[in-house]
Amino acid sequence: MARVYVSAVMDATLDEAWGMLRDFGALGNYHPFFENSYIEDGLPPDQVGCVRHFTVRDGGGYLRERLLELSDYEHRCTYEILHIDADWRNYVAQMQLFPVTESNQCFGQWWATFDVPPEQEAEACQRVADTFRIFFECVSQRFGKQG
Questions:
Q1: What pTM does this model have?
Q2: DSSP secondary structure letters along 95-144
Q3: Which residues of 101-137 form beta strands (DSSP E)?
Q4: Which residue, among 129, 113, 108, has the nearest Cα to 18 in the 3D structure?
Q5: Within 10 Å of residue 134's Cβ, how many Cβ atoms?
Q6: Could you tell me if 66 and 39 are in contact, meaning their C-beta atoms sit under 8 angstroms apart?
Q7: What is the pLDDT of residue 147?
């Protein structure tokens, strides 16, 4: 089983970062890997069980992911991949945010576990890690202090 963990301190407050994350359908609006993101069946983007559908840029196919948990109290979400144009199975990811009270920034951690053929594991883990890392960078770019 492949495991990926990425963490970062973002140049945003907890509320700013959570505001971006909790809109489960908006990923394709700001993440450079994805586009055409929407929630299927017109469900609210924070409703547990909703499915987001988005396209991978540069012809990489599409993904469908189901929101399994969303906690405004714990600033955490959990989701699973229902479809990906890759030989991945049993993909579950969770992201959680915490305040960094001293600097008014936000600490985020994001991890995933999934099954992938051994010969594809290194590349798949790098792809997932890059996706998580770039999300954190997008948050910092959107809310970062201009100097």
A1: 0.93
A2: EEEEEETTTTEEEEEEEEEEE--GGGHHHHHHHHHHHHHHHHHHHHHHHP
A3: 105-115
A4: 108
A5: 16
A6: no
A7: 39
Nearest-angstrom CA–CA distance, 79 and 21: 12
Count structural domains, the chain: 1
Termini Cα distance of the chain: 43
Domain that holds residue 115: 2-143
3-state secondary structure of 114: strand
The per-residue pLDDT for range 57-87, each reduced to its tens digit, is 887 799 999 999 999 999 999 999 999 999 9
């988005």: which residue's tokens? 54
CATH number of 51's domain? 3.30.530.20
Contact by Cβ (8 Å): 125, 4: yes
Mean pLDDT, residues 99-114 taken together: 96
